[in-house]
Amino acid sequence: MDLRFPSDAQFDLIVADGSLTGFASAGDRLRCFDLALFAAPIEDGDIVVAERASETLTRRVRRLGARIELWPLSGAGAPEGQVIVIHEDAVSPSAKIIAKVLLAYRLA
Questions:
Q1: In the chain, which ranges are E strands?
Q2: What is the mean pLDDT of the chain?
Q3: Which of 54, 52, 48 is nearest to 20 (CA)?
Q4: pTM for this model (two decimals)
């Protein structure tokens, strides 16, 4: 539990397969907080959970003004098709950021 955020806004996700390079591996848990329950700014470098169509994705934010790029955690050099671009003023964005990731941990 992260005391900076309301407990009812926090939840854990389990990394199902693969890895989030340099951040988490399969089986690790991601402590997140729900942006619908606790509003917080999305900043450059944040790790977020986004929904796109029927996918739930974990990505790193690169912010360029009102343009938000969601990059795979596998690092730079990712194929361009894997980068998701969201414009804050878009009526119907291509993806929706639903949570910020606070930390990754593994149960002992």
A1: 10-14, 19-20, 24-25, 29-34, 47-52, 55-64, 67-72, 84-87, 96-105
A2: 86
A3: 48
A4: 0.84
- Which candidate, 87, 105, 102, 108, places its Cα nearest to that of 40? 102
Report d(CA 13, CA 67) in Å as an integer: 26
Cβ-Cβ contacts under 8 Å for 108 (sequence gap 6 or more): none
The backbone torsions φ and ψ at residue 80, rounded to the nearest 5 degrees and listed phi first, read -55, -35
Confidence bin at 59 (pLDDT 50/70/90)? very high
Measured at the CA of 29, the angle between CA 27 and CA 33, to 5 degrees, comes to 155
Q: What is the pLDDT of residues 64-105, one digit of tens each?
A: 888 899 998 865 555 555 888 988 777 777 889 999 999 999
Taking CA atoms, 20 is separated from 5, 47, 58, 69, 74, in Å, by: 24, 10, 8, 17, 6
SS3 80: helix
17 touches 30 (CB < 8 A): no
Residue corresponding to tokens 């955020």: 5
